[in-house]
């Protein structure tokens, strides 16, 4: 539509972003962006708030690997009214803890009307192991990724699942100092990097929306808990926000020219007008791919991470702003057709073009 504005919001997971590095703490940014953007494409790390969520009709919930494929021009996104969500449990989850998650899923069915299939349990414990890189970013591994993929295939083939919510048992023994810093709003999410690995595997293999909720025993109460970390300590499960996000997550469509023909219900990367990223986290494949298009790259200085990979250092043309509030002002100007440069007081004179 004329004047429509489509924005991709990227806040990479597991790198300690000051905003977006905690459960759902970037949702206020998305809500505000939603008032000036016709469409926002972002990933579960931004929108998952454990038991808290905020559904918005103009926001597309796109898993990180799928977002990278979209940015590369390999996949398109097809909006849907509702997905049938398959629930996948790690065999390592204790019966009582699994029941807590099942009851959360049943609550989402009963209270929110979400469509869920019957669930599966992996045929082996997934064996999640957590890792930290020298930069401080977190990642992880699975001992039995093949078991994860077999369970996902069963949900797709037998239950006709259109999206998959994965619940894996994460270690309770997490570095005490790192966990304490995170709960105080000062550290890196120790789980996030491993969560991304899990969902990436399923999306890469099956080209289907997927997201992950870790299964953990509740932590002891902490009276000094940071508000940013509080969403993760409301109960026994992080599952509700994942189920809500997947319920209307767009389906992935291959843009292979041999099989794809233009369809009005499928959007591709050429629809993207703006990409917003933390200023020091510009090295991801999604942003790098979209920087090769006509999209305006906006970097936010006041969202520091453990990384220092800048647009300038990569030779990417970008508009640096101080805050997300400033970014929203830039988008409002773009939507109105106002020259963005006029949001700042200094203004150069028009010059005659060279006669050469």
Radius of gyration from CA coordinates: 21 Å
Strand order of the largest sheet: 3-2-1-13-14-15
Which second-level CATH architecture of the largest domain applies? 3-Layer(aba) Sandwich
Record field, number of beta strands: 15
* Basic shape: globular
Q: What is the overall pLDDT average?
A: 93
Helix content: 25-40%
Order of helices and strands: EHEHEHEEHEEEHEHHEHEEEHEHEH
> Segments where pLDDT lies below 50 for 5+ residues?
none
Structural class: alpha/beta
Find the CATH topology of the largest domain. Rossmann fold
The number of helices is 11
Distance between the termini: 39 Å
| Estimated share of beta-strand residues | 15-25%
Main sheet summary: 6 strands, parallel
Top CATH class of the largest domain: Alpha Beta
What can be said about this structure in brief?
The chain is 30% helix and 18% strand. It has 11 helices and 15 strands.
